[in-house]
TrEMBL record, chain A:
GO terms for biological process: amino acid transport. It comes from Sulfitobacter aestuariivivens. This is Branched-chain amino acid ABC transporter permease. The keyword Isomerase does not apply. Belongs to the binding-protein-dependent transport system permease family. LivHM subfamily. The keyword Protease does not apply.
UniProtKB/TrEMBL annotation, chain B:
The keyword Cell membrane does not apply. The keyword ATP-binding applies. This is ABC transporter ATP-binding protein. The lineage of its organism: Bacteria, Pseudomonadati, Pseudomonadota, Alphaproteobacteria, Rhodobacterales. Keywords: Amino-acid transport, ATP-binding, Nucleotide-binding, Transport. PROSITE patterns: ABC_TRANSPORTER_2. It comes from the Bacteria. One of its GO terms (molecular function) is ATP hydrolysis activity.
Length: 283, 234
């Protein structure tokens, strides 16, 4: 039982970290960014390249991954999302295509074989009889720190309030002196950076491969649909619901059923509460 | 020098033309009203001044050409806007809505917040309430308050009384008068209700089908029988 609680907490923290950037873009940019997984994949590869292939300090590898993720977010907004604004289907298809292109680029650059990413923080600790790697413990702690910082930023700063304002009424924000375009760019950069940070931990939790972007996108979509648009706390809570659900299913039923109940949860929420458990009805 | 001077302004939504060669001016400290029926182009005119709509022609503010300026530039130049549909942030509190208005005027937050609370004490009482749960009158107050948080020198107010109870209309009118008299703000107000507009403005422009068909003081406009019948209930 304790094993399930600890593993559930750790996996949930990782899921929350991964989903947070996706939720930001979905809530503020109103875009289902299917290329979000590309930030995660590229984040993992940049960390691998800098810290394992070039031998740079791990913190430089991590910082480089976050910087490249943020840059990708900025470029994606500038080159794809902005020109296609007003056509969500075109944006979604384009972002999906971009993820596939990024996958091919990673195959070209690093080959298609999976790689083991050395943990950011090596070592194992035993907590209440459960073996826990420092790496996933760090991911969980970092996820909480990032979520709390993001919450404070969105609620307590002018830029954070402007992000909320743009998500609710773009004209209202514009006549208040907010430049929605600039706010969207900031949001896309933060989202890219968060995705890449999550990617470093996710890749070391699973493994690094060019196709690793798919699973995090599915997890992120699930968390945001079940949680609802625009709720940082909702995202955090649902990440824990899904994390615990998966760990429990694997421990009690069968590992093959890991994602099945998450999908059932999505369908159930879509039918019974389309705005999500913590979302608000859109007017 | 006029606070705002507009010459031959035409505005478009895609291929549809909403304004045709509109010219008008408002002097510093003056209150003018744009009167017209639904669809006459009143909101488009204010949106054009704010840089929200594609347009041709010339808009000058204190002699400087601001044609094509972005909404953020206009706000920084001192233009505040309370639009007809309020465009508030429904799931943010009254206080946070007002603070978004202070985005470009952060050094004036305390001063402006005090002024807003003096004008609308109800907003101080309900600063923690989400605007989605407020009445139309309260939302109008938040909308005007948010515009005032931008530290404006000119205020654009689009149909401030539409859909509001008569008692609230009186309150709003009183606030608009105080803004002009006590704070020296220049005000452009649009209205379907010409008599309400007359109670506020020194001059009126009549907008029909996207162009100005008459302008002048109330006395001058009342001499036109057709206008008096259409707009002043004569």
């Amino acid at each position: 039982m304790m094993q399930i609680i600890i593993q559930g907490m750790l996996l949930s923290g990782l899921y929350a970290l991964i989903a947070m950037g996706f939720m930001l873009i979905f809530s503020i940019g109103r875009t289902l960014n299917l290329a979000y997984g590309a930030y995660i994949m590229v984040g993992g590869y940049i960390y691998f390249w800098l810290s394992q292939q070039l031998g740079m300090p791990k913190i430089v590898g991590f910082g480089g991954a976050v910087a490249v993720g943020a840059l990708m977010g900025l470029l994606k907004h500038r080159l794809i999302v902005k020109p296609l604004k007003g056509d969500p289907v075109a944006v979604e298809i384009s972002t999906l295509i971009l993820a596939v292109i990024m996958q091919s680029a990673m195959v070209l650059a690093f080959g298609d074989a999976s790689k083991i990413l050395l943990p950011l923080i090596p070592g194992v600790v035993t907590v209440a009889g459960a073996q826990v790697t420092y790496n996933i413990l760090a991911a969980t702690i970092m996820s909480w720190v990032i979520i709390l910082a993001l919450y404070a930023f969105v609620r307590g700063t002018h830029t954070g309030r402007a992000m909320q304002a743009v998500s609710m009424d773009e004209k209202g924000a514009a006549i208040s002196g907010v430049d929605p375009d600039r706010i969207n760019m900031i949001t896309w950069a933060i989202s890219g950076g968060l995705g890449a940070a999550g990617g470093v931990f996710f890749a070391s939790y699973t493994q690094l491969s060019p196709s690793m972007w798919v699973a995090p996108v599915i997890i992120s979509v699930a968390i945001v649909i079940v949680g609802g648009i625009g709720s940082i706390i909702g995202t955090l809570i649902v990440a824990h619901i899904i994390g615990f659900l998966e760990i429990t299913v694997v421990a009690v039923l069968a590992p093959e059923l890991r994602g099945v109940f998450t999908m059932v949860l999505i369908i159930g929420v879509l039918i019974m509460r389309p705005q999500g458990l913590f979302g608000r009805e859109e007017h | 020098m006029s606070m705002i001077e507009i010459e031959n302004l035409s505005a478009f939504y895609g291929k549809a033309q909403a304004l045709r060669n509109v010219s008008l001016r408002v002097e510093p400290g003056e209150t003018i009203a744009i009167v017209g029926a639904n669809g006459a182009g009143k909101s488009t005119l204010l949106d054009s001044i704010m840089g929200l709509v594609k347009n041709t022609g010339t808009i000058r503010m204190e002699g400087q050409d601001v044609t094509g300026a972005k909404p953020g530039d206009m706000v920084r130049r001192g233009v505040g806007y309370a639009p007809e549909r309020f465009n508030l942030f429904p799931h943010m509190t009254v206080r946070d809505n007002l603070l978004v208005g202070a985005y470009t005027a952060r050094e004036d937050i305390d001063k402006n917040m005090d002024a807003v609370h003096r004008l609308f004490p109800r907003l101080a009482e309900r600063e923690g309430q989400e605007t989605s749960t407020q009445s139309g009158g309260e939302r109008q107050m938040v909308s005007l308050g948010r515009a005032l948080m931008t530290s404006p020198r000119i205020l654009l107010v689009d149909e401030p009384t539409i859909g509001l109870a008569p008692k609230v209309c009186v309150e709003i009118a009183e606030v608009l008068r105080r803004l002009s008299a006590e704070m020296g703000l220049t005000v452009i107000v649009t209205e379907q209700n010409a008599n309400f507009a007359l109670s506020l403005a020194s001059r009126l422009y009549v907008l029909e089908g996207g162009h100005v068909t008459a302008e002048g003081t109330a006395v001058e406009l009342a001499k036109d029988d057709q206008l008096a019948k259409s707009y002043f209930g004569a």
